[in-house]
Amino acid sequence: MDRFERGVENAMQTAFAKTFKSGVKPVELAAAVKRECDARAAAVDRNRTVAPNEYTVYLSPTDFEHVTDWGDEALAHEIADSLEDHARSLRYAFVGAVEVSFELDESLATGRYSVSSRTKRGPVAPATSPDPLSRFPLLDIDGQRYNLTGKTTIIGRGTEADIVVDDNGVSRKHISLEVTPEGTILTDLGSTNGTFVEEQRITEVTLVDGNAIRIGRTVIMYWDAVVTDED
Question: What pTM did the predictor assign?
C-alpha cells in the first residue's frame, strides 16, 4: 500500500511538472511535509505518537531558485508553523524543535520535489497537547508552550538561546533550566535585570509545579513532568 501511494504521488508530481512549467507552489511543499510527518509518525505507547521534527525538502534548480526568491527562511518558518498546527490536531509529539530546510537536487526536474525527515532530540520541543500534564517539564511563555526534552535549556533574548524571548528587559542568555531526577533547577546566568520566581529574586532554585517565573516583563509558567507507567 505504501509503495502504491508513493507511486500515485510520483505520477501526480510528474503530471504537475508537465502542465505547470512555473514549478512547485509553497502550499504543495507544506502539504508534502505534512504527508511525510504522517507517514513517519510512530506510536511509542498507547498515549503517545512521536513524529519527526527535522525535514529537508529537495528541489530542482529552478524551484530552488524560486524558493530563494520567495525567501527560504520565511517559507521554512511558515511551513514549520503549519506542521506544528497539524501535529496538535493529531496529538503528535516532538522531541526537538521543528525545523524545515531546502536543498538543491540537480537530478530533479522542474515541478518535482522530495522530502526526507528525521527525529532528533533537542533541548526543547513545541508542546502539541493542550493538557499541561506532560511526560516532560512544560513551559508556557506568552501562550507558546514548550516541553523541556533535553537536559539543559537556555532562555534569553539572543539568537543563541534555545528559547528566544522578544523582551528588551531580558538578557541575551538570561536563565538556564536543568532537568534532573530531583527536579528542574533554574539558574540566573548573571542577567542584568534579575530573575524572579513567585516574585522573589533568585540566583538558583529548584522549581515546583505551577511556579511563575518572571524575566524582564515576561512571565513564564512552569509545570513538572508527569511520571507514567511507561516512563
Answer: 0.78
